[in-house]
Structure formats: C-alpha cells, structure tokens
Amino acid sequence: MTSARSARLRTRIGHRPGVRRLGVAGTALGALLLGLAVTPPTATAAPVTYEAETATVSQGAVESNHTGFTGNGFVNYDNATGSYVQWNVNADQAGPATLTLRYANGTTTNRPMDIAVNGAVAASGKSFAGTGAWTTWATTTVTTTLKAGANTIRATATTANGGPNVDHIKVDGTTTQPPTGTTPAAVNGQLKVCGTKLCNTYDKPIQLRGMSSHGTQWYSQCLTGGSLDALAKDWNADVLRVSTYVQEEGYETDPRKYTDLAHSLIEQATARGMYVIVDWHMLDPGDPHYNLARAKTFFTEIAQRHGSKTNLLYEIANEPNGVAWSRIKSYAEQLIPVIRAKDAETPILVGTRAWSSFGVSDGANESEVVSNPVNATNIMYTFHFYAFSHRDEYLNTLSRAADKLPVFVTEFGTQNYAGEGSNDFAMSQRFLDLMASKKISWVNWNFSDDERSGAVFKTGTCDSGGPWAGTGSLKPAGVWIRDRIRTADDFPTS
Predict the structure, then answer these.
(1) Is 411 a catalytic residue?
(2) pTM of the model
(3) How far apart are CA 111 and CA 464, in angstroms?
(4) Catalytic one of 53, 248, 368, 411
(5) Which of 86, 176, 378, 414 could form a disulfide linkage to 154, CB 3.0–4.6 angstroms apart?
(6) Is 451 labeled as catalytic in the residue annotation?
(7) From first to last of its 494 residues, what are the pLDDT tens digits of the chain?
(8) Please, what is the angle between helix 425-437 and helix 392-404, to 10°?
(9) Do 181 and 154 form a contact (C-beta atoms < 8 A)?
C-alpha cells in the first residue's frame, strides 16, 4: 500500500482499503444436469407422484430386486458422497408445497441427504434412518416453496454410505402449512420489492441479515466450504454478499477468473440455502460509467446462468463517488435493461451518491433520489455506514429515506469509515434497532481475516483453514455481529 494511496483513503468516507494478499481463486462449479427431455406432469391441486426411476440419477442405479416399490423400480444410491436423484417438477403457481419421499434403508445407519429445491437447500442433512429391511418402506416430508413453472428437486447423499433406496417423491402443492425448519432461501423463495420493503414470495415484508466478503481477489481463502458452512449453520446468516472488485487487482485484470469465482461462490452459498448479493464492487474511479461496458458483460453472464435461481440480488454499483446522482441514475437506466433481458425477477440494488450515503457524505440527502428515482421497477437503493464515523445525521437520513424508498444496507461496520480502529457498538446498535423496526435488510463488512478491526476473523485464520465455527477465531466485532445475526429471523408466510 503506497503512502499516496493511504493519504487518499483519508478523504474517502466509504472506502475500505484492501491488503494485497492474493488468495487461491475458486473454480466454477459444473452446471446442473437438466434432467429428462420429456415434459414432467404438473403439480396441481392433487398431489403428484414422481418415480425415482424416471428421474435424473448421478452415481446410482435403477433396480427392482426388493419388493414393495411403486412404479417400475427404485434408485439404489452408490456408496458415495454427492450421489443424487433429481426430479423435474412443474407447478401451476408459486407457493408452499409438501415433498414426501418414500425410501427404504435396510441398514442400522442413518443415511442423511440434503434436499434442494431449485438449487437452494430446503432441508440440510435430512435424516433417512434405518427401516429394518430393504423391503420395508417409509416416508419423510420436507416443506418448501415452489416457483411457478419449472422446478428441480434434488436429494443428495451427504456421507460416504450414500443415500437410502428411493422409491418416489410425492409433491403436494395444496398445503397451507408454512415452511418450518428450513433455510432462509427455501422459506422465503423469490424476493421482490413491494412498496418500500423487500418482500418474500408471500408478499410479506422481511429483513435479511448477513455478511459481505472482502474483495475476492485478496480473500478467496476465507470463503471455503468450512467457512460457508459456519456462516450458514453456526451464524444462521440469511445472505452472503460476494464482492467482486472491478479495479484494485480485481475483475479488470482477469474477467474470466473473477467471473468464474463469482459463479462458484453463488453456487456454494445457494447450496447452503442463503441468499446471495452479487456485488459489482466499483470504487475508484467513482463514476460507474467508467465500468459500464464491463458491468454489462459481467451481469449478462451472471443473469444468464443464475437467473432461474430464486435467491439472488444484483448490486450494480457498490459506492459511486465524485459524481452527481443524475450520473448514477443514467448508469443504472442503461445497465438494468441488459440484466432484465436475461432475468426479469431478481431485485436490483442501486448505489447512491457519495459512497452510497444518499449524498450525506457530500452534504446532500435522500431528497435527490426521492424526487428523481431510477426509471425501473423491482429495485432498491443502497446505504452504507460505519458507526464510529457516521453518527446521527446518517442515522436520521436512513430513517427518512426508508419511509419513502426501498433501502438495503449492503455494507456497514462498527468502526470508522476505513473499517478499522475502535468499535462503537452502542451507535451500531442504534442503527440495528432502526433497521429492525423498519425491516431494512443489512450486510456487515467483512467476512475475512484482514488485519483491520472490521474483519471478523483474527489474522491468520483463513490461511490456517479455520476454525470457523464458534467465537474462538473471532475479533470483538466478529463476536458482536455473529450474536446479532444468530438471533431468530421473522419470516412471515401467512
């Protein structure tokens, strides 16, 4: 970090400088199999049974040597982690559904599986206990949500013993029971903007809470299977923000590498049932138009590959700075149609003036956005704050703005504007209380082991491969924010 760059940082309200430690970039996950070409039956008012032997099978075989099955047979999973059966299901309309899996397990050992719907885990480590014999069949249920039209349901073995023998899955879309004990993405389904709130598939306002990665060009080693498991299951996070820096040794140096890394992290967070904010982390230059062509390329590919998922949000300009709101608005109105050509449903998050402060850091306020909003639907506006530096003026601006505009706090810290120094937990709690009262979703900066106080892990944790769960590897800010993410969600479904 040069002295000149350090001096510039002191004038940037929203910038968190990055330590240039290069992590090992992740690789893109393989595309999901599409399943049979034959159009499956549609889930309507009556429950529909889908036989396992007609589904897509990976690492398993269709057999009929144990009696009691329905249809023409059943699927015998290979003794391998990752073996799966995937069904294609059509639903007349979006809404809750009960999935009933019929299976046999002739051993005395549980053979747990992850049940994923449209790529998001609806039930993690679902138990498939011994049934006494391979000819003794039992059922187990999962409550989830389906989107209108095509859906995929996948049952994946999570241990080296593989899965049980699976006979069929029955899909009942008539249930009115709310989904319980499932992941945030499975409970809430496709998000949308309704009025000034972020709403779930039931048109109910919700608040998401989670963490932002640091720049993936520096800290991909902090985003591993173990750390993401901890974020989803130990922290109980609803959302992961994947920060793809455009400059600062990021996307512009190797677009293929960093797009593939974003693909991989989207898939990994999706598999754990979390929502994903795809963050186009533009910062310097502060005019988003500088990177408009790159943004069109990046989001076209992201939306084309992941647009069918129901757990994404697109953040198209992290922290515009040094430009007027009209310039940011112009950028958004050129980029949003490009995204909508590939993905008509995912909410889009638009940065605001002066490091996404609604202009407060430039002496302005939210009125410029209120009087001249982006000409697009299903969008929200972003707000960032750092509680030690950003006091009542910022808190009051956020409160006023949220009464008039849909707002998502995609970045905040308990420290100063550089994400370092002392923590102000009291001021931070005032912000959190306001956001809870108005159902403003938020993401904390950052899920890494950067040496600054705003990184949740102690320095060296990521290079050592953890430990990730619990508080032993956390700095004070990490302990504090983990406690607040872990509190119970309020996801109304009726």
Answers:
(1) yes
(2) 0.67
(3) 31
(4) 411
(5) 86
(6) no
(7) 222 222 223 233 333 333 333 333 333 323 222 232 333 444 334 789 999 999 999 999 999 999 999 999 999 999 999 999 999 998 887 777 889 899 999 998 999 999 999 998 888 788 888 888 999 998 887 878 788 889 999 999 999 999 999 999 999 876 434 344 589 999 999 999 999 999 999 999 999 999 999 999 999 999 998 999 999 999 999 999 999 999 999 999 999 999 999 999 999 999 899 999 999 999 999 999 999 999 999 999 999 999 989 999 999 999 999 999 999 999 999 999 999 999 999 999 999 999 999 999 999 999 999 999 999 999 999 999 999 999 999 999 999 999 999 999 999 999 999 999 999 999 999 999 999 999 999 999 999 999 999 999 999 999 999 999 999 999 999 999 999 999 988 899 87
(8) 10
(9) no
Residue type, 485: I
